[in-house]
Amino acid sequence: MVNQRQIAKAANVSISTVSKALSGGIETQRLNPQTVRRIHDVAIKLGYQPNDHARALRTNRSGLIGVYFGMGHQLKGRPVISGYVASRVLDGIEEAVVTAGHDLLMINFTHALGDPKRLETVLMRKQLDGLLAVGLSETPEVYDLVMQRHLPTLAIEDLPSDHPAPSVVMDTQRAVHDVLEHLTELGHRHIGFIGPLHDNASAAQTRRLVELKSQIKNRKLPWSDQHLVDSSNTNIILPRKDNFCLQDGLVGMKQLLERQAPITAVICYNDLVAAGALQTLSQHHIHCPTQMSLVGFGNYDVAQCLWPDLTTVPYPLIEMGKCAASLLLEHLQTPDAPPLSHEAHMVYSDLVIRQSTAPAKTV
Amino acid sequence: MVNQRQIAKAANVSISTVSKALSGGIETQRLNPQTVRRIHDVAIKLGYQPNDHARALRTNRSGLIGVYFGMGHQLKGRPVISGYVASRVLDGIEEAVVTAGHDLLMINFTHALGDPKRLETVLMRKQLDGLLAVGLSETPEVYDLVMQRHLPTLAIEDLPSDHPAPSVVMDTQRAVHDVLEHLTELGHRHIGFIGPLHDNASAAQTRRLVELKSQIKNRKLPWSDQHLVDSSNTNIILPRKDNFCLQDGLVGMKQLLERQAPITAVICYNDLVAAGALQTLSQHHIHCPTQMSLVGFGNYDVAQCLWPDLTTVPYPLIEMGKCAASLLLEHLQTPDAPPLSHEAHMVYSDLVIRQSTAPAKTV
DNA sequence: CTGTTAGCGCTTTCAT
DNA sequence: ATGAAAGCGCTAACAG
User: Fold this and answer.
1) ∠A51-A26-A3 over CA atoms, to 5°?
2) A4-50 belongs to which CATH class?
3) Which CATH class for the B64-170+317-347 domain?
4) What pLDDT digit, counting tens, does each position of A140-165 carry?
5) Do domains B64-170+317-347 and B172-314 have the same CATH topology?
6) Sheet holding A103-107: strands in order across?
7) In the CATH scheme, what is the homologous superfamily, with its name and number, of domain A172-314?
8) Which residues of A touch B305 (CB under 8 A)?
9) A19 touches strand C (CB under 7 A)
10) Fewer CB within 10 Å: C terminus or N terminus of chain A?
11) For the whole model, what pTM was predicted?
């Protein structure tokens, strides 16, 4: 393994000159350009790569960004990273972090559910430069920890409600707006909503319903308990099995139909739910979209595999990961930067209109 | 940040005694148990955590495992980690690595497609202890690199065909056996196969077809070009868009039907393809499973969302990741271990029988 | 059983 | 414009 000493010897300079020449910073400019060039040439010829551990030890900066996933992403020992949300966010993060020349260290709690100690441990041992956190709201201790240690941190999507942290979130308001705009343009007025039928709705899922209610009210569309199915409303709490979202849709749509309300369009809290709803519709011989329009959420792969394929609001998770990572890295690269802004950065993506929505039947 | 010196002072011992006491190894046992206990107490009271960089610098072992994804996982700039295969494998790896007290460093080539230099760089800078590689077959240079550097490496699923590397793969033979057993028990004899209709079949996908042909022959089932649709066979090469697998199924099943062969069951190279095939069937008013049985591969989420839901062979990717990581870590923890065995470790998971397969029509 | 010492590779004053 | 030297926190060889 070639180090600076060997370069120094080969280039006939001292080891500290080598360090300065290769640092690329202001120090480099103070050196004789010829010396710098010579050192560079030697370094390349010898195939030099700096030792990140030595550098980290000396400078207290590791070049590592940590990724933390809250407990919601690993409920009941289920895998974390292959989850819909986690994998996409991670993809965005990875792209931005690697592009910026940093490296990504996975930290999570698969084996220590709800134990923020693990994060603290990694933090101390690995000297993380920053943290990206998905699902902070469930573990305020983690938030306290990073604040106390002044660890630059950005929350993604799911931030502690009581302490507003620097964060990147989806623009739910706009999403709901676009869905309602689309449906009302098609002539729908009685619009139903199928929400989580289990006891573990995420902050983002909750936001969707709150926002929907508010905008439905603003638009003066009809709304009552009849239009909504979720566990607050029905006392149905489905077990959270592998296919729990699908079940929510199957059961939710059944509920909705039994009520015989004059609903012509249903919004589902995600695409899997919509898939379940679609199955219930076809079992009841109700044709989608001519008799009932359906809107999903997320633009999952499933959305394209169904027939009819789903009109849906994409959940720009990759973008969100990328955005959060970029903001964090920019912050880190600015010396004496002011603390990260506590206002949420909004990310959005346009409604994808497919075959599951059609004009409302004119009665 | 508390270090060993502070512990030494507080416990009235020398710094090297602290190191020995906390090492947990054979050195610890040579010390006075009382001293060890005292040092431990102090360490805990002060909240000591070792500095991994210092340790790595000193010992040349970083405690880091790298994960490498080959180019197939990031075709045309598409995201890597959120891919079906990558995310699941990663999940298994993460679990095993973190359980064993190591940490996971993401390395990949999102921004340096086909550039093994990037791996080399990370290797040198970060002193990786080992590597887990998914998709090695596409980049033999990477394989050469790790061999040359004696970096303990385990390939997952996709190994270089010419040089057999230590690897973990799915037991394709058994998978195909179980599918054929199931179908023949149901009375099917004319069995079709829809393979990749694009020019980038993975090694695993190819293996499935090869194995199928071989076992069909052994069972003396009818087989001809009529039973197969893939790009070698039809000159159809679909563009690899977002939903390319679905398209393969849509188009592939159409081809198969046009041939009017007496096929009663079709195996698809994955569940998304089966989803496409199902759509084509319903457009042609052919009922699945009574008129045509369908078998998928992978047990994707989609498989459960379809109607009928799919009989499918699960692809035990999480298990495979876990298995590979465990093997690697075990190897690393054994001093003077012999090189990793070059024989492939097999992982398997049982056929999931759902609604898309039924007895063959007796003509 | 415990302490002294050297040094891993790098950055960073401080001198020259 | 360059070099000498100190030291980041830890481990390991050696000495006592």
Assistant:
1) 20
2) mainly alpha
3) alpha beta
4) 788 888 888 889 999 998 765 666 78
5) yes
6) A344-347, A167-170, A153-156, A130-134, A64-69, A103-107, B103-106, B64-69, B130-134, B153-156, B167-170, B344-347
7) Response regulator (3.40.50.2300)
8) 243, 246, 272, 275-276, 302, 305-306
9) yes
10) C
11) 0.88
